[in-house]
Structure formats: structure tokens, C-alpha cells
Amino acid sequence: MAPPIPTPKEVVQIPLDWVEERSGLVSLHKYLLFRNVPKDISWLQTLGSALITTFMIQVVTGILLAMYYHPTADGAFESIRYITDEATLGWLVRGMHKWGSSMFVILLFLHMGRVFLMGSYKYPREMTWLTGAILFQLVMFMSLTGYLLVFDQRAYWASVVAININGTAPILGPFIAEFLKVGPEFSENTLSRFYSLHMLAVPGGIIAMIGLHLYLVIRLGVTSPPWSKHRAKAGDV
Ligand code: HEM
After folding, report:
1. Contact residues for 145 (Cβ-Cβ < 8 A; gap 6+)
2. Whose CA is nearest to atom 16 of ligand 1?
3. Which residues line ligand 1 (CB under 6 A)?
4. CATH assignment of 43-220?
5. Class of residue 163 by CB neighbours under 10 A (exposed 0-12, middle 13-18, buried 19+)
6. Which atom of ligand 1 is nearest to the CA of 118?
7. CA nearest 157: which of 177, 186, 179?
8. Considering the entire predicted model, what is its pTM?
9. Domain-by-domain residue ranges, the chain?
10. What is the pLDDT of residues 62-94, one digit of tens each?
């Protein structure tokens, strides 16, 4: 007798049960997605999720750009020109990455403003704020390192000025400037260093920090707005 043909539901369910039994990963999505949130939250509480979405767009478009980009003094600008003018849909991918970066910074300020004005940084969410503050620094560093990569006159001189400003900071300034330049002078190695920081080190730090930030958000829940009747008041136990 031929074995019974599985129904479409079973075709999905059986592999999911297999993974769940061995790893518990399937039920993890319930913990991540199905959480109680205050009744009176609004669109303002979606800015964090908008940031995650924008970050994912930056990662995907960044990976596509890295497939064509050459981090060398002679090749950088030419590879950017090739991406924009000749690679299939290169203009779109580059445009999404460039405008996405501006969108990311705008959303970052809006999200930070929202949590500040609603007092969401107060006890017990101080660590959520602190991890957010580190994320803010990392995103600013992404902007700095990304700007040089086009390697035209504007990118070059803007980066020279930014590195020189860093160099004027007390005590650590000269070390930071020398680290960024890879030696006393701006050279081709500066471009390689910025590229490696921009596409490996800093995004790695951002991914780790977003993970910690979200863990804290899930653990502590989202705050009600200050005008909410349900919001905990100072002195509540
Ligand atoms: C890559 C950057 C960031 C991402 C992806 C991110 C993501 C999120 C998400 C998804 C939430 C929960 C939903 C919401 O309230 O919107 C959240 C909450 C929060 N974030 Fe961020 N965030 C980022 C940057 C920051 C920054 C720069 C700060 C402040 C310096 C910050 C402080 C907070 C705080 C205090 C909460 C808790 C809000 C509450 O409980 O109501 N975040 N974040």
C-alpha cells in the first residue's frame, strides 16, 4: 500500500516540529513577537522598529555595493562610477544605501527624542538608554567612515577635516587621529582602514548592541506615555 500523501498543513508542520523538538527555536518567535504592550501606545513607539528595518536595508544594500567596490586610491571612485552608471540597478542600490543612511540618522534622532520626552529612560530602563547611547555613537562612526569611501574631492577633504578635529581632543586625540590615518599621514591605507571599519567592525558592534537593546526592551516592556492612567508613578512598588 502506498504511504499516505501529507496534507499541505503537514508539509509545513512536520519540519517545524522537527526543528522545535531539537532547538526550541520555533517557540522563540512567540516570546519575541507576542508580548503585552500598553493599550495607549501610538505610532511613536514604532520608531525603534523602523530603525531596525532601515538597518536591515543598509546591510543588504551594503553587501551588494561591496561586491563591486574597490577600496584603493585608484579604484574607489571608478568603482563607484561603475556601480552608478553601468552595473544592473546599481544606481538604485547605491541610492538606497545613500538615502537610507540619512533616513537612519533622522529616525535615530526621532526615536531618541521620543524616549527622552516620554521619560522612557528612567528606572528601570537606564540600561536600555545606555545601550542606545552606544548605538548612537556607532551610527555616527558609520557616517564618518562611509563618507570617505566615494573618494572624490569632497569625501577626501571632509575626512581630512574630521580626522584633524578628532586629533585636537585632549590626551587621546592624537592617537585616535593616527589610528584613523594609519600613521602620521593620510594615505591609501586610510581608505582601507575606513572600509574595514565601515563594513565589518562597526556593523558587528551595531548588531551586538541592537541584540542587547532589544533583549532589554523585551525584558522590561515598553513604557506607557506620561499622560497614561496606567503608567507607574514615582513611589509605586
Ligand atoms: C540602531 C539604533 C536603535 C534601534 C534599532 C533601537 C530599537 C528600539 C526598539 C525596537 C525599541 C522598542 C520600540 C520603541 O520604543 O520604539 C526601543 C526602545 C528604546 N530605545 Fe532604542 N533603538 C536604537 C537607538 C536608541 C538610542 C540612540 C536611544 C537613546 C540614547 C535608545 C533608547 C531606547 C529606550 C530608553 C527604549 C525604551 C522605550 C520604552 O520602554 O518605552 N534607543 N529601541
Report:
1. 194, 195, 197, 198, 202
2. 48
3. 45, 47-49, 51-52, 55, 108, 111-112, 115, 120-121, 125, 128-129, 132-133, 135-136, 139, 210, 213, 217, 222-223
4. 1.20.810.10
5. buried
6. 41
7. 186
8. 0.92
9. 43-220
10. 999 999 999 999 999 999 999 999 999 999 999
